[in-house]
Known about the structure:
Layout: E1 5-9, E2 16-21, E3 27-33, E4 37-41, E5 48-56, E6 61-68
Antiparallel strand pairs: 1-4, 2-3, 2-5, 5-6
Amino acid sequence: PNNGKFSVTTEQSIKGQLIIYNHLGQKVYQNTIENKQLDVDLSRQKPGVYFYQYITFQKEISSGKIIIVEY
């Protein structure tokens, strides 16, 4: 769990899109990862479970969930 501020780090410098959805499937964040790290700020979103997809420009997809809590 985190407060909505975190970094995404990739093992290689593979460009791609990070997309984050809320529990209703609404897109709440989208950004391109150009280097190995991207700083994400979802602190204005409500606490809860969010789902992410990381799609490289080679069409490889990774997905998972993020839990935001109030501190």
